[in-house]
Every structure is written in structure tokens, then in C-alpha cells.
Design brief:
Number of domains of chain B: 3
Protein name (chains B, D): Acyl-CoA dehydrogenase family protein
Number of domains of chain A: 3
Distance between the termini of chain A: 43 Å
Distance between the termini of chain B: 43 Å
CATH architecture of the largest domain in chain B: Up-down Bundle
Strand order of the largest sheet of chain A: 2-3-7-6
InterPro entries (chains B, D): Acyl-CoA_Oxase/DH_mid-dom, Acyl-CoA_Oxase/DH_mid-dom_sf, AcylCo_DH-like_C, AcylCo_DH/oxidase_C, AcylCoA_DH/ox_N, AcylCoA_DH/ox_N_sf, AcylCoA_DH/oxidase_NM_dom_sf, Mycobact_Acyl-CoA_DH
CATH class of the largest domain in chain B: Mainly Alpha
Number of helices of chain A: 12
Order of helices and strands of chain A: HHHHHHEHEEEEEEHEEHHHH
Helix content of chain B: 40-55%
Structural class of chain B: alpha+beta
Structural class of chain A: alpha+beta
Strand content of chain B: 5-15%
Number of strands of chain A: 9
Pfam families (chains B, D): Acyl-CoA_dh_1, Acyl-CoA_dh_M, Acyl-CoA_dh_N
Largest interface: A-B, 46 and 46 residues
Number of strands of chain B: 8
Strand order of the largest sheet of chain B: 1-4-5-8
CATH topology of the largest domain in chain A: Butyryl-CoA Dehydrogenase, subunit A, domain 3
Cofactor (chains B, D): FAD
Keywords (chains B, D): FAD, Flavoprotein, Oxidoreductase
Radius of gyration of chain A: 20 Å
CATH topology of the largest domain in chain B: Butyryl-CoA Dehydrogenase, subunit A, domain 3
Oligomer: heterotetramer
């Protein structure tokens, strides 16, 4: 196993098992998923810099290296703006962003393009005359963000802008969160200076594609851990004088869970191995495919885990419930199965590239 | 039959119009406040003559039929009014005491149970006795005129607020597992009883763990014969399950009505919304059709039956389909209660969706129900 | 059981078990589902006249009486134009039709409204100046039909016309059939005399609603029989030294089949008990609901039956395969689950009455 | 590894360009004509050097790797060309004879098997031995230098056309069931052998019942040791299953390509079509990703493994999803082959949909695969 990719993931796994699982995770989740000390710790460890170019003091690994690492984030239910802190500085070479992330200060991604079917509910941002206007009603970690990456639409197509949340015209409102490992806010942009564009339509498509891929990997790891925990449970738990895992009905559910989690892991692996060299259009289709499958399968695996772990799985104390609620939160982020199946189908039928409808 | 149904229609009209004039309480989220409100509400319902409807008059009830009771349950749901807090007492424990209790037990316990002065909880499940309930390990040892009880129960609703507990205990560890169980009526104020609420995934905290540490229970608190507790528990669970299915059915229908009203106000009428609501409606029509059969069985006085397991699975499916479809309509905004995608109150639908996942576990898991159906209804051979 | 409805169904069940199951059915299916002798026999038995008004020498039973009878047709896989021969003379009081059906001569229903999502594939018929023009590409039993009941569209809305297949301008082409118990043809109407209207838009909605209800009942009976046969099989078939029905995985599939078939039967019963007195709008929603569920559930029950009966279930000799292929043919006839869920949803959301989009 | 892959790419290019110049035969539906065409095609493939690719040169093969064989399989599918008719001989029986056969068996049987002169069938399953294959009852009794075989086999592809049968028989009825089985090579022309095709739901008639009535088989036709037949059969089944999975994967991909081409020509691009094609594509991507792992296992020389059962379930799911989605797009016009809804050739898609339902049965039912996964891969205790 000389593959450095696996080395990163193993190191992350090892660290998280040692320094995060258990009390630490409980504490971070109890705080709603945001813990600045923990975020700074990950920054110190260099985890955010994995795919940042060497010219900017990153490790310069290809983006695909992040996939197995995100699977570990999923397995260990790591809370915090991992997606934003890891992906944005790797894709957008903006000083402001890279400086912020280097200290563990979280960026937020103000992107109305998280969905095709809830566009009017999510909001939109428009760029005109160098000014940003609009509102996005659901932005992960917006209340904590020290830098905002805004995807705006204009008559010239979508573009990306890096904005200081303290800039005039920016308002961030706290929102309640149903995701145990993320906070949310509403971002209102009222005539905000847009500054230079940090990316064009191609950059937006790449950004969203990579978000889909990494979320899928996270869901894959999450599903994998639900299988692992369930196996431990059904081997230990006895009813009717024998381990429940010896009942054929339980075995078959466990086997189905394993097949689903393994299939998802294989899909992520295959997609990542092609992703770095793929064209932006191919990457978009691959990412939609993988995220659609992950969003479909991971909640099912969680539900089977809940079924096999019985009442105990439903207690807040048992972290399975947090895994499930996180899986459900990620399910619709950057496309739920129904939206993405339509995108993939359109692409396969030749209406490609899968169009970015938002903004 | 027609006369009974006419009578029921009149009764329903009366319940509905009286209910319309009452102040239906809002139920606070905070646990102690909720309990207090619900308890006051039980007193209101008692005063209205809507508790113990099918109980004999001598036990303090109304002497009507289970169908009348069902009417009240349904009308409460339709009026968005809470159920009485003491459901366990009213639906499970009370009927058992009425049927198997001594004169003293009936006289002392039933009136206070009915009025809501005493809230009962049900100490059946244990950490190691879930699907295999009969393997329960909480011990009760005779010491003179008392039983001394030690052990742990779990999934006991409202135990930290209850005055009494209907407790299944093992009194003969040598007997076959169903044959060594007794049914004790335990005062929750007894020294050695500790109840601890367990927070659920939904955020609810009604369920408790209850610990019994050498709790002394007078012998007169034994319900029925010693070592005959299992059949008492099973007898009343049958009726309670049918009642719970019927109540839950109405709750599901009200939920769909509420969701549709939210969607209509918002003007959501795209194909995706239509498909989700169509699927939910169809699942509830199947449940509704099934419960017509259940009502007919209840009206004919049927007791526990393997058909209850079919009811349970149809209910599971309807409930999980309904709330999965509604949750699906929240899309990415499921994560942000407060933002109302398509006009839907996501905090409620997220809660109900999570709760629906437990439907295939509590009251006998889907796996247990399928075993029962296959063996007792379809006659397939035991493994 | 003094309910006459059940008496009819019992009599039908008894007759079919005695005179149809086995060699007779094999022979009728081998002929592609059309056997004039058998059709005449059912006419003699009066089965087609059950819901025909007494004033026209029918038995004058309400339409809901047909439901349990159609469940028996499904249970016994009765081939032939049952739907057309039973429903059309009951709904449309046209002499031509009633005379034809009385002798067992089959009517065909030339209705483009069997679907919402394949309208351009199915074709359409237009009424203008008293003439019918158009083509319907899939009509059950058209090649054998001695009378055609045509649903046509015009600027005044849909209407129903009874047409002689030998009339000038009518062409019927044979089509191959994938339904073991029905033949199909294409009906071309080239400037055909329409005659008087035998029904307006309300009649069309009632016709389609009853077609949906009765098809659902047929699917319900079909599913029920698949459960019955599967239970016999898994009790008798031994593997690993015991009946396969003693394996928990098999038990759970059997239990699921039973719950589905029983739920569908309950749904049909409840719908029928409300149907005779229902408004045309309510009936339309109920019928779409019941057919959507039947079309979803019956094929699933068949698939589980195939799974539990193993290789033998897949042989043409084993009639399970014919049950499955028939279920799949009925699945999309007058609406598959996807189409009908949309209709039902639209009605529940208040866009009712569920609009007849066709013609 | 990179060198091998480069070599494979070159090999693939060569196969593809040579195949492009060949006359790929149309396969008639009529059974005898089909057999004749496919047999001629096997001769063409043999002459091209594309049979026995992974066999040793001394056995008449090409001495290349299973990866090369896979390349040919894939390119045949991509070229819409049929596979050789003698797949059972090539993938299952041949490798077993090569590994366990006597010098006489290898010399006499392998060359004719490879060239397609002899077609082999596989007499494993019996009417009462499906999932529980080891309970097979076909008896072989030693009589001097012969075995006398009586019994019945089923699901034997092309038995009515085959020259030879690889037959599992019980030679020791007293032994434990896996231990009393021998592997015989039976000349189908022997007196007492009768084969009868069984028509399938799809209309196909390749599978047969085969009856053996006191058939005399020379002792030299015993493969391996007496009573050691089970392990021989299991050994080669593993490789065959992996190969079949990989072949089927390419067939599914080609099917989707063909369906998409039909839809495109018709201009079908509505949301319903998109959703169906999207789902099908996703299911095939999962299968594709899974088979990368399988190929890596094969390339590393792995034999039968419980991972094969995961492959099988992933394949089942992909195949059943694909064809269910395509069949769904036929709507009510599924019933009328000839009418082409949305441009789809419904006769093909109906056939393939029905065939896909058998995918979870043949080669070990989905239930058997789940048992294997749970017990051998996940380590859950036996029941």
C-alpha cells in the first residue's frame, strides 16, 4: 500500500479515533457542530491544506486525495465546515481565503446552487455593476464565517466572489439547525462591493462537482461506520437466547447494508480515480451520479442500522441518531436523488453538459 | 349494527360540538410544563365524561363501547387536541385491574387512575428484554407480606412523573420463562425507585429508564395470581394495540391535512409536490381501508389476534411513507428549521419523520410481526 | 354472509375452479387469450349482464358488485375482454352494444385515455362535423371486436360513440401481444360516421374510473392467488432437509406478500363500498388511488412469488409466469403508479377534479 | 501492472479492429437455427484465436491471462456479437478438466471442446436440489468398469444439442452430503439419456430437463477422485461466476446505450425519461465501479470468495434496476410489441426485463448470497 492517498486517510482515521471520537465529539456536537479550538487544531494539522497548491504553502495533492479523507470525516462524524475549509482554498487561489483558512477561521459558501428543485426557497444573488444583491436562506456555518465565497449570477453567467462578512451591506442571521454537526445562517447581500471575480462558470461547475463528490465520500464513510457499529451490536445483543445476528432476517438486513455501503465506497473510489483528469462536463456527470447514489443509499443504511439496533439506536445518547440526522442533512445538499437523477438522465440523453440552473 | 352506527354518529356530533367550545390547550415543549398542561387536560376530559368510556359504570366509567371510545380519540385528534396524559393507565393498566384486580385494588386505584390524579407507567421492557420480552430479569422475592423488587426497566413513558407503575417481574426463576412472571402494582414513591428520562433522536424526553433497588411492594399489590402476570399483560396489550393503531391513523390523516394546507397556502403545486402528496394519500387510504376491518373486529369484540400484526405493518408502512414523502419535500432545507420550503413547517415534519422511523420497532418490531404473520396467520412451519 | 355480492363472487369462483382452471385455461391462453366459445359460455352464464339494468334484461346489480367478481377473474387468470364486455353495457345503454355482448360478441374500447404520459404514442380520435378521425395504437381485443366504443375529443369536450367495425373508414390492424390473456389491435378511423353521442365528459370520467377500479380488483385477486400458490410451494418444497417456508428469510418475504395483497384487497373493498354513491369527482380520485396502489403492489407480489418459487416459477409451464406478465400488462393500463400518483396529488392539493387530459 | 495494462490495451485494439472486419452473425430466434449459427460462430472465434485465451498452450489455448479473455468477452458484447455457444465448456468444464483431468481426458476432450466440435452442458441442478445443490440425488453405481447413472437434472443449458455433459452424481449415499459426490463426463449419445427443453417466461428455450435412465459411463470418464466431485465443481464455479458478472456488466451497458440511442432518435427527453435513464445509469456506474475491484481480484489470481456474493447482488440490483426502468418507460404499450413507445423496441425490453427477474435466482439466489455475505464476510454467527 504505497498509495499516499491511503496514507493521508489512515493518518486522519488514526488521529480522529484517538483525539476526537467519544467525549470530544460529544462536546463538539453539543455545541452545535462548531468548535473554534477544534477547527484551529485541524488547521494546525494541515488537513485544510492538503489540496492547496504548494506555491501557497499547501501540500499540493490532487483534489481526489480528499475523497478518502472525507470518507474518514464521515466515519467519525467530524463536525465543522470541512467541505468549505478544505475545498475552497484548493479551488480558489484567493489570498484572503487562504490566509483565513490557514488559521482555522471558517469560510462559508454562499451558493444558491445547492438545489434545482427548491430554487425559490433558497434564494439567489445577482451581480450587476460590480455590486452583489440578494439573499441565500441557507448557508452552512455562515454565523461563524470570517470570509464568504459568493456564487452570483449575472447576464454574463455565474461568477464567484470573495466577500468579507463585515463589509457594508452584508447581514448574516442565525438559523436553527437540524444537522447535529453544522450551524446555518441566512446571508443577505444588500449592494455589496463584489470585487474581482474569483472564478467563472467553469469554476462554478468544478466547485459544485467537487462538493458533490466529497459529500458523497463523506456519506460513504458515514454508511460504512453504521455497518460497523451494527455488526458489533448484533453480534453482542442477545434475544431469545442467542445473538440477534444469528437470525436469518437480521443477517439479510446486515448483508444488504454491507452491499450498499461497499457499493457506494467502490463508486466513490472509481469516481475519484477518474476525477482529476476529467473534463469539466464529465466531472459534472460523474459527481451528480455519485452524489445521487450516496444520497439514496446512506440514509437507507442508517435506517437499517436503526432497525437492527432497536430502541437504543433512537436515543440521543447513541450517536447513531446523530449519524442519521447528519446523513439526512447532507442528502439534499447539492442535490437529492430525484434532482440528480434528472441531471444525470439529461446528460446521458445528450442534453449535456448538465446545466447549472442556478443562479 | 345500523342502530349502533346511528348512535355513534349522534355521539360523534355531540363530542365534536362540545369539543369545539372547549379551550384546547397548546402543548409546551418543555417537559415539566408539558406534563402539567396534559394532566390538567386529563381532568377536563374526565369531567366531560370522555375517559373510561368503555369501562363499566361501577369502575367509574361510562359503560359505553370501545367504538364510542374510538370516536372520542378520533375527535380529539381532529380537533388538534392532545390525548390524555394517562393513556397507559386508561388503555392498558386500567382494563387489566378492572378484569383481574381484587376489590381493594379496583376501589383504591381505578378512580384515581381515571381522573388523572394518579398517572401510571408501564414497566415491561428491559435493556436485555426487548423483542424477547418474556426473558425479563427484574426480580421480585417474597419476604413476608412483601415482594422485594430489584432490576431495571426501560422505554417507560412518563415514569419520572408517574405515581404508579404496572410492573412485570420474575417471581419464579426456575419456571419456563413465560411461566415465572408476575404483575405488580408499584407505588413510584417507594424508596429505591429511580426514574431517568432518555432523550430521543427527535428531541423528545418522555421515555425513561427506571431502576428498582430492593423496592418493597406489599403483597396486596400483586395483580392476579403469582406467576400469572404474562397472560394478564398479553390480554390487555392486544386491545391497546388496536386502539393505538386507530389513533395513529387519525393522527397521520391530520398530519397530511395540515401539510396540504401549508402547501396550498404557499401555492406549491409542481409535479414533485403532487407526486409526494399523491403517494402519501394513497398510503393513508390503504391504512384507512385496513382500519375499517380492524374497527369491525373490535366492534365484534375480538381480542388479540395475529391480524394485529398485519395492522401494525400496514400502519408502519403508511406512517413511514407519509412522513418520508413530506420530509422529501423539504429538500436541502430540511437542515434549517425556520426556513419553510414550499411553505412547510419543517421543524414539525423533521420531528415526525424521525419519529416515524421508530414505528417499525416499538410495540413489536417489524421482524417480530412478520414472524407472527408467517407462523400464525399463514401457517408456515417454525424454523 | 347474506351479502349477495359475495354470493356472485363465490359462484364465479366455484365455476372457474371447476370449469376453467387447468386444461381449459391452458387452451385459452395458448390461443392468445381469445376463445369465442368461452366468451359465449360466460355470456350464457349471465356474467356480462350483472350490472346491466333490469330494463335491458340485466341483473341490475350496482357496479360495485363487479369488484369481487373481477377479483375472482384475477385469481383465476380469466382471459378475454371481461372489462369491456361487463362494464360497457352496464354504463352505456346502447342497443347495439347490449345485443352484441348478450351473445358473447366482444366489444372493444377505443380510448386514448388509457394514459397521461404516453399520449403521443397511443394516438387520439377527434370528432368534427359528426365524423370521427384518428388512430388508437393499442386497443384490447380490437381484432375480434364486433362493436367499437370510441372515446373522441372535440371542441365541446370528450364524448363516446358506438361504431360498427365494418363501417366505412374503420380499419383494424392486428398487433402482437405481450399479455398472455389479451389480444391487441390498432384502430384507424378515417372519416367515420360518429352517430349519436352515447356519453359526455362525465360519462367518460365514470367509464375510466370504473375501468380503474375493476382493473385494480383484478390485480388484487391476481396478487392474492400468487400468495396462495407461493404458500403451497414453500410448505412443500424442501431444501437443506426442511421446508423452505421454515427459513426466516422466506417467511418474511411471504409475510410481506400477504400484507401487500391483504392491504390491496382491503383498499378495493373500501373503495367499492363507497363507489356507487360517490360523486363523479370523488370517484375519479378514489379510482386513481386504488389503481395506483394495485399497479404498484401486484407486480411486487408476483416478483416475490417468482423469487420464492425459484427456477420453476420462470417456466412457461408454471402459470405464475402468465400471472406476472398479465399483471405487468395491466400495470400501465389506465394509468401506471407514476401517472396516477400525480393525478391523486393534484386532486388532494385542490387542483381537482383530476382532469381528464385525453383526448 | 502498468506493463500488463498497456499490453491489454494493445490487445483490445487488435481484437476490436479484427472484429470490425468480421461478419458478425444475426442470431435467429428459432432454436435449432440459433444453435447452428452460434456453433459456426464458435468456429470463427476459435480460428481467430479467441477461445481458451487463458488456457495453457498445451491444452490448445493461447497461454494468455484471464484479463485477455475478459477483453475478448467485452469486445464481443460491444460489437453486438454473440458469445460462443460453448461457454459452459469453455468457462466451467474445460478449466476443470485441464486442472483435474487425466492425460487421456485432456487429450481426447479438450481440443474438441475448444473448437466447438463438442458442445458441453452442465448437469448440476436437480428438481429437488436447487439452492441446496449438495443434496443432489442422481445416483451412479459402480458395475465393473462402468458407472450406471440414473436420475434427473434440470436447468441444463443446450442439453438437447450437447455432445457431452459434466455431471455431478452421488456415488456414496452413506457419506455426508458433500462427501459422496463424484464428477462424471458423460457422452450425451449414451443410451438412456433424454433431454427436453423447458420454455421460459421470456419465450427462451435453452434450458432443459435431462433424464438419465441406467446410463452406462466408462470409469475413465470419472474426473478427479471418486467422491471428490464437489470440490472440483466449486473450484471452477468461482471463476466462472466472476467471468459471468463481468460479461453481464458489459451486456447491461450495451443495453442502456442501445435504449438511449432509440430514445434519442425519437427525441424523447421529458423528465420521466430523464429520471428513468438517470437511475439506470447510476445503477450501472455502481456495477462498473464494483467490477473494477473484481477485475483487480481476478488479475491477482484470486479464486472463489465471499466477495463474489457481493458482486452477484450488485449485479442483480443493477440489472433489475436497468431493465425495470426501461420497462417502465414502455408504459401501457408494454403490452403491444410493435408499437414503439418513446421509440423503444419494446419486444427487446420486455424480454430483457423478464429475464432480469431471474437474475436473483440463478447462480445462487439472492437469499443464499446474503447468507454467505453475513456468515463468511461479516462473521455473523450461524443460525
Amino acid at each position: 500500500m504505497a498509495d499516499p492517498t491511503d496514507d493521508y486517510a489512515s493518518a486522519v482515521d488514526e488521529y480522529l479515533a484517538r483525539a476526537y471520537e467519544g467525549d470530544r465529539r460529544r462536546a463538539v456536537l453539543a455545541r452545535g457542530g462548531w468548535d473554534p479550538t477544534f477547527a484551529a487544531e485541524l488547521a494546525d494539522l494541515g488537513w485544510y491544506a492538503l489540496a492547496v497548491p504548494e506555491s501557497r504553502n499547501g501540500l499540493g495533492e490532487p483534489l481526489s486525495t480528499l475523497g478518502p479523507v472525507f470518507a474518514q470525516y464521515g466515519r467519525h462524524l467530524v463536525a465543522g465546515p470541512l467541505l468549505e475549509s478544505t475545498l475552497l482554498p484548493a479551488l480558489l487561489e484567493t489570498d484572503l481565503l487562504i490566509r483565513a483558512v490557514g488559521t482555522g477561521a471558517p469560510p462559508a459558501l454562499v451558493d444558491p446552487g445547492i438545489t434545482d428543485h427548491w430554487t425559490s426557497d433558497v434564494g439567489s444573488v445577482t451581480l450587476a455593476d460590480g455590486r452583489l444583491r440578494g439573499v441565500v436562506h441557507a448557508v452552512r456555518f455562515a454565523p461563524q464565517a470570517e470570509v464568504l465565497v459568493v456564487v452570483a449570477g449575472s447576464e454574463h453567467g455565474p461568477s464567484i466572489h470573495v466577500v468579507d462578512p463585515r463589509a457594508p451591506g452584508v447581514t448574516v442571521e442565525d438559523l436553527a439547525s437540524a444537522d447535529p454537526s453544522a450551524t446555518f445562517g441566512r446571508v443577505v447581500l444588500d449592494d455589496v462591493e463584489a470585487g474581482e471575480s474569483a472564478g467563472d462558470d467553469v469554476a462554478v461547475t468544478r466547485l459544485r462537482s467537487w462538493a458533490r463528490l466529497l459529500l458523497a465520500c463523506e456519506l460513504g464513510g458515514l454508511a460504512q461506520r453504521c455497518v460497523e457499529r451494527t455488526l458489533v451490536h448484533v453480534r453482542e445483543r442477545e434475544q431469545f437466547g442467542r445473538p440477534v445476528g444469528s437470525f436469518q432476517a437480521v443477517k439479510h438486513i446486515a448483508a444488504t447494508m454491507h452491499v450498499r455501503a461497499a457499493g457506494l465506497a467502490d463508486l466513490c473510489t472509481a469516481a475519484l480515480s477518474d476525477a482529476d483528469g476529467a473534463s469539466v462536463d464529465d466531472l459534472a456527470v460523474t459527481a451528480a451520479t455519485v452524489k445521487a447514489h450516496a444520497a439514496h443509499v446512506a440514509p437507507l443504511v442508517c435506517e437499517d442500522a436503526l432497525q437492527l439496533q432497536g430502541g437504543m439506536g433512537f436515543t440521543a445518547e447513541n450517536e447513531l441518531s446523530a449519524y442519521y440526522r447528519h446523513a439526512l442533512a447532507l442528502r439534499g445538499w447539492y442535490g437529492d436523488p430525484t434532482e440528480l437523477e434528472l441531471r444525470v438522465g439529461a446528460a446521458v440523453l445528450g442534453t449535456r453538459p448538465a446545466p447549472e440552473r442556478q443562479p | 349494527m345500523t342502530a349502533v352506527l346511528d348512535d355513534l354518529d349522534t355521539y360523534r356530533e355531540e363530542v365534536r360540538s362540545r369539543l369545539a367550545e372547549m379551550d384546547v390547550p397548546d402543548v409546551p415543549l418543555e417537559l415539566d410544563a408539558r406534563f402539567a398542561v396534559l394532566r390538567r387536560w386529563q381532568q377536563v376530559l374526565f369531567d366531560a365524561g370522555w375517559l373510561g368510556i368503555a369501562w363499566s359504570r361501577e369502575a367509574g366509567g361510562q359503560g359505553l363501547t370501545p367504538m364510542h371510545q374510538l370516536v372520542v380519540v378520533e375527535e380529539l385528534v381532529r380537533a388538534r387536541a392532545p390525548q390524555p396524559i394517562g393513556l397507559i393507565g386508561l388503555d392498558v393498566v386500567g382494563p387489566s385491574i378492572d378484569l383481574y384486580g381484587t376489590a381493594w385494588q379496583r376501589r383504591e386505584l381505578l378512580p384515581r387512575l381515571l381522573s388523572g390524579q394518579d398517572i401510571w407507567c408501564q414497566g415491561f421492557s428491559e435493556p436485555d428484554a426487548g423483542s424477547d420480552l418474556a426473558s425479563l430479569q427484574t426480580r421480585a422475592v417474597r419476604a413476608g407480606d412483601e415482594f422485594v423488587v430489584s432490576g431495571q426497566k426501560v422505554w417507560t413513558s412518563w415514569a419520572h412523573e408517574a405515581q404508579w407503575c404496572a410492573l412485570l417481574v420474575r417471581t419464579d426463576p426456575e419456571a419456563a420463562k413465560h411461566a415465572g412472571i408476575s404483575y405488580l402494582l408499584v407505588d413510584m414513591a417507594s424508596p429505591g425507585v429511580t426514574a431517568r428520562p432518555i432523550e430521543q433522536m427527535t428531541g423528545d424526553r418522555e421515555f425513561c429508564e427506571v431502576f428498582f433497588d430492593e423496592v418493597r411492594v406489599p403483597r396486596r399489590n400483586l395483580l392476579g395470581e403469582e406467576n400469572a402476570g404474562w397472560s394478564i399483560a398479553m390480554h390487555t396489550l392486544g386491545t391497546e394495540r388496536a386502539a393505538a393503531t386507530l389513533r395513529r391513523r387519525v393522527e397521520c390523516e391530520v398530519a397530511l391535512e395540515d401539510a396540504v394546507a401549508e402547501l396550498r397556502r404557499h401555492g406549491a403545486d409542481d409535479d414533485r409536490t403532487r407526486a409526494a402528496i399523491g403517494r402519501a394519500h394513497i398510503a393513508l387510504r390503504v391504512l384507512g381501508a385496513r382500519t375499517r376491518r380492524t374497527v369491525a373486529r373490535l366492534a365484534a369484540g375480538a381480542g388479540a389476534s395475529p391480524e394485529d400484526s398485519v395492522d401494525k405493518l400496514v400502519l408502519n408502512d403508511a406512517e413511514q411513507t407519509l412522513f418520508a414523502q413530506l420530509a422529501d419535500l423539504l429538500g436541502p432545507l430540511r437542515a434549517t428549521p425556520g426556513v419553510r420550503p414550499r411553505g412547510l413547517r419543517s421543524e414539525r415534519w423533521v420531528h415526525d419523520h424521525l419519529f416515524s422511523r421508530a414505528a417499525s420497532i416499538y410495540g413489536g418490531s417489524a421482524q417480530i410481526q412478520r414472524n407472527i404473520i408467517a407462523e400464525r396467520l399463514l401457517g408456515l412451519p417454525r424454523g
